[in-house]
Amino acid sequence: MLSFSRTVKAVADGTLFLHSELDRLSLIRRKIRFRQSRNQIVNHVLTHLGVLQTSSKYVSRRADIVGWHTGRGTDVDSEAANKPGESLWSRFPRTVRSRVIGAMNEALSNVKWAYNSELLNSGWRTYWRSETNAVCFAIADRGVGIPKSLPKTMPEIFADVGRKIIGGVRDAELISAALTSNRTASDEAHRGKGLPEMAALLEQWPNAQMTIYSNCGKVLIQRKLGKTTETKTNSRNSILGTLVIWKIETGN
Amino acid sequence: MQEIHFDNRTFSRYPAGRYRTDGKWSGEKFRDEILSHFIANGEKTTIFLDEAQGFGSSFLEEAFGGLIRKGITFATFQSLVSLRSDDSSLLEEIETYMLDAQGE
Asked: What is the ipTM metric for this complex?
């Protein structure tokens, strides 16, 4: 039994990650029972995501809660990841839409580094949502996290950041370093463009942001009126995976 | 003149991933099963890129940069293959991958 009885607020980022975890659990354990929140808005949000889909009480949907279109898979399957967001694509010019899907494809490619074995591979979940003047899309996985995959994917970044940080390597600093790197130390120098490409997508708009949560680290890249800033935060507890969310102010 | 379309008949509208092990419509698969054949036969070919929903750098680098690593020179590619897209930055990106691969 999973109880939401004490949940009073559903923040989008955390709710998506919760959904990805529940979705993963549902593959292992068919029936998960839930106790609803006392807060009706929380119940409606969870209903939108399908968490409380068995509850008929919340089937009628509130207009002020915008639903997410979701996709899931294990391979780099662009169609499974992106097609759920098809109804929102008209909000982007054709060439920009291609870049959006390209960034999502790179995020999918990165997920393969997130799992140490195929047995543990619970894949990825993607989310697309329309907001007033904005489009949000996200990808979540329950793998080892970007900081822990760096020794394999970008060993020089891992070593370099580790040397600079007094008091131990911190996840947000590692994620940030990986975002700005354009190469790996592997003998295949052409690899390792995925994370920077995901961040570079923001440059297509004057106002946009990307938030990466991975293990204990959070990196928020914000672009406002064409100026980009980065904020790094480390928390005590790990989310045990990765969630990347883009929010693009499309102006339509 | 041969034509390559990123549609579901020739390849996929959703190309993604670098290697075959990544997924069904990878850059490696496109290079080895589609592009290489036209070049090996010396056929003049036009690739219509805009029918694809989008490309990631992994796909493009492996498909086009990988072609150079497989022994095709950029000059040979240019003499046989014409790339078509309304997005000039996409064409520049592909050229960069090929020139970088030539310099590796």
From this structure: 0.90
